Every structure is written in structure tokens, then in C-alpha cells.
Amino acid sequence: MKKLFLPTLVLGVGLLIVTQTSAQSSIDPPELKEAKKAYSQKSYTQALKLFQAYADKNPNDGSPYLYMGYIHESKKDFPKSIQMFRKAVEGNLSKSQKSTSLLKLALYYNYYQEWDQAAVYSSRYLKVNPNNKEVQKIYERADANRGRTPTRVSSNNNYISTAPSNDPPPVKKTKTEYEAILKQTPSDEEARWELSLIYFNEKDFVRAESIMKPLVASFPKKPSYSYKLGVTNIRLGKFNEALELFNLSKKHVDREDKQFLYYLYLNEGMASHKLDRYAEAEAAYLNSYKMNGKSSPLIALTKLYYDMSKYESCITSADRVLKTMPNQLETMMYKSLCKFDSTAKDAGSLYAFETELRKKYPKSENIPDTYYPAMIKLARDYTNQEKYKQAEDYFKVLESSYSQDREYLFYRGKALYYTGNPKKAIQMLSLVENSSAAMYLTAKSYAMLNDRLKTQELLKKAGDLKDIYWGLANEEDDFIEMRKIPEFIEFLNKKGADSEKTPASSN
After folding, report:
1. Residue 131: CB atoms within 10 Å
2. Of 11, 19, 40, 378, which residue is most buried, by most CB within 10 angstroms?
3. Once rounded to an integer, what is the mean pLDDT over residues 99-111?
């Protein structure tokens, strides 16, 4: 979309005002006639005094504010001008005057990236002029960026929303009010959209989805609707549905709208990543990064490359993030995990990350689940170092989220065995399927409980998978008491052949 700069708009609308002045002057009150006369003569100081005096006596008339807006604009005092136009559109104006004022406001806030205000005024303009494609693009872009901080400042280095003013911003309706409107008029597009955003922001994604769906069905060519419904579906775990909606949005989005495409590709990457469609996720993240070069896609790529075991790419991506964001903990984590899981087995990087993590979160229970991937590796390494207390500190935090994870089950089971809790160890280790190491540890746990038959049963399963365990059982102290039993010695010598078969335990 071409950028429409304020001076260009001033010229076009200034001509419109002159035409309206001569057409309406015959029916204007005397005070307003005098003010317009001063305006037409470019006696702007006098005109401002006369328009303000008239406005004070006639607060519901929007026309004096309209003219004062143009006077301030001619002086290049855009913030003051916009304050006047905002007052104008809340008063009585002709249809053409209101359209012109709303257009001015929409363009101004779009240019200075005040997204919430741009969405409000472009939406109001489109109610009067629904076929204006340029303003439709402004609305879609602004709506996609609601709540985001502007990156362009006005000419006096103040955002218009923070400039001193007694004029309050437009007041949005409440959830109850929007629901009442929809109940009476289900086809009200703006009410449906605003209500869906309220539910989305309240994290009631089920309700938000149900309200958004009719919008996408009725307006499939409006990319902001399909995009937002796609994001909602991601929150609901409906990743395939989200991708379908993102594809619909891509068909109709303005290819020049880099900001919208940035978020669209970023969320497309997230949905593909969740579905383990790694190649598609990588392409989407890279496209997102191309739109504006921000760090979020690189952070996502770092995690993606870790999941793909592309450790060198992971580290390279992480380094690009950390160059501009040296304290980005999540990126630090994945870089350390890549070094830990690679052939180098660099544990130093993982413990350096732990130091930074614990500076921010001294208590393990306060660590967000974002960092659980590092916690499980730390717990594992502490277990292997026989630092069971430190390992258990992390295991306790992870148990609700990792209760079915093989790595968690095995290493916590191992820690429990070596800290004298064989029964709890068995509970954990028995859930690790097709693991000879887990079977062997389970055999050790049963040996600690003096259950010979269960010890033999699990030892045979482990030995059938890896022959090395027969020799270890003959050597390790964990089976020293078992080796005092002749039947167990015979079992070891025969490697479980013709072993006793009974479901009952024997001590």
C-alpha cells in the first residue's frame, strides 16, 4: 500500500472545505459565518478565536472543530490538528465532512502507527464508505497490530495518544454491550469482531473461536479475520485448522504489508512446528524474519533447529539473537542444550545457563515451563554425577509435565534407586518401554527388595537385549545378596535358560 503523507491530504481536503464554505454560508449562524469568512481570508488567528467562541456556545456542532483542525494543520501543528478532528467527528457534521475527518484520523494514526486508534477510525470510516480499498487495508493492518507500541513518532516527538489533551480517546463498548448488540443484530461485523477480541484477550479461546468463525465465513477475503482465527486455533491446539486459515489469509493480504506478513509467517511457523512439519516451519520462520529482521523468528528457529538435532544451525541462530539480545534466556538455553546434546557433550555451557537462570529464579518452583527442557538435562546430569539432591530439586518441578517422558522416568527412577527408594524406582522404570538399561535398573531394585524371581525376570529381559548385563550381574555389588542363593547363581550361569516360571514372588 502506498504511504499517504499528511501534506498531500491537506491540499485535497482544503479544496473541499472551500467548496463547502460557499455552499453552506447562506444557512450558517452569523457567528459561524464570521469565523468562516476569516478562515477564507486566511486570517487564521482571528478565525481560531471565532470558531472557538462558537464551539463553546454550540458544543454539539462539529464544524468549528473541523475548521480549527485545518488551521492547525496548515501551521503543521499536527497533534493539535488531530485533537480538533477527533472533537469534530464526535459532533454533528454533514456526511461528507464526517467522512473527510474520519479519513484524516485514520491516515494520521496509520502513519504514526498508533494501531488502536487507526483501527477505530478506519472502521468508522468504512461504515460510511465500505468500498474504499485503501482504508480497508489500513484497518486490516491496524487490527492485526492492536496493542503494539508504535515505532514511528510524530514531528514534535510525541505520540498523539500521549499529547496533552482534555479530549478523551474513543470509549469502547463493554463485553455485555457487544453481546446485546449481537443478540439483536447477529450480522453486526464490528460488534462481532470487537467481542471476539475481548474473549481472546481474556484467554477464553473457545468462545473467541465461536464468535470469529462467522466473520471468516462471511468475509473470507479479509485477511485479519482468518489470521486472528488461526492464532486462536493455535491456542486451542488445532494446528491443522490454523494452517488452513493462515493460507486463506495469505491469499488476500497486501504483499506490501510487511508487518502483517511478519506475524502471519511467524504464527504459521509455530503451527507447523507443533505438527513436527519441520521443513515448512523453517521456511515460515525465515519468511517472517525477512519481513523486518526482528529477533522473534530467530528465537523460534533456534528451538526448531534443536528439535531437528541441527546443532550447528541452532548455535548459529542463537548467536545472531544473543548479539543484539545478550540476556535472552530462552536462546541461551537452546544454545547450551545444543552444545550438551552434540557430540562435544559440552556440559559447561549448560551449567553456565543454569547460573543465569537461578539468578532470575532462585526457587526452582518459580521457574517457567519454557525452561523445562534445560531442567530435565540438568537433572539427568546431576543424577549421573550422583548429586541426587540437586537432581530431585528439578525432578519435583518437572513431575506434572514430564510424567510420561522417557528421559524423566529413567533418570528419576535411577536417582530413586540410588537414594534407597527401590519401590518408587520400580514405579518409574517400569514405564520406560523397550529399554535394557531401565530393565536392568528395575532388576537391581527388585534385588534390593530381595525379590529373586522378579529380579531374574527383569534381568533376563535386559540380558536378552544386551548380553553385557549377565556379566555385570555377576560383578556388581547390587546383586551381592542374590549371588548367595544357589538358584540365582545357576540362573546367571545359564543366562536365564530354563529359569523358574511362576508369577509369585519369592524371597
Report:
1. 7
2. 378
3. 88
Nearest Cα residue to 328 out of 320, 339, 337, 338: 320
Average of per-residue pLDDT values in the chain: 86
How remote is the C-alpha of 468 from its chain's centroid?
49
d(CA 453, CA 125): 82
Residues 6+ apart with CB under 8 A from 416: 422, 424, 425, 428
Q: Which residues pair with 61 in a beta bridge?
A: 92
Q: How confident is the model at residue 142, as a pLDDT? A: 81
Q: How far is CA 209 from CA 233, 241, 244, in A?
A: 7, 12, 15
Closest listed residue to residue 432, CA positions, set 455, 448, 413: 413
Q: Taking a C-beta distance cutoff of 8 angstroms, is the pair 447, 479 a contact? A: yes
CA-to-CA distance for 432 and 133, rounded, in angstroms? 59
3-state secondary structure labels for all residues of 258-322: HHHHHHHHHHHHHHHHHCCCHHHHHHHHHHHHHHHCCCHHHHHHHHHHHHCCCHHHHHHHHHHHH
Yes or no: say if 36 and 25 are a contact pair by the CB < 8 Å rule. yes
* Confidence band of 20 (pLDDT split at 50, 70, 90): very low
Q: Are 408 and 394 in contact (CB under 8 A)?
A: no
Sign of the CA dihedral with 155 first, then 156, 159, and 165 last: negative
- Total H helices, total E strands in the chain: 27, 0
Triad 323, 328, 332: Cα angle to 5°: 85
Q: Residue 91 is which amino acid?
A: G
Span 144-173, average pLDDT: 48
Q: What is the CA radius of gyration of the chain?
A: 34
CA 45 to chain centre: 50
- CA 380, distance to chain mean position in Å, is 30
- The predicted-structure confidence for 186-221, as pLDDT tens digits, reads as follows 998 888 988 999 999 899 999 999 999 999 999 998
Model confidence at 278: pLDDT above 90: yes
pLDDT at 477 exceeding the cut of 80: yes
Strand, coil or helix: 327:
coil
pLDDT band for 151, please (50, 70, 90 cuts): low
Residue indicated by cell numbers 546431576:
382
For the stretch 456-460, contacts whose Cβ atoms lie closer than 8 Å and that sit 24 or more positions apart, written own/partner, are 456/488, 456/491, 456/496, 456/499, 456/500, 459/491, 459/496, 460/495, 460/496, 460/499
CB atoms under 10 Å from CB of 449, counted, come to: 15
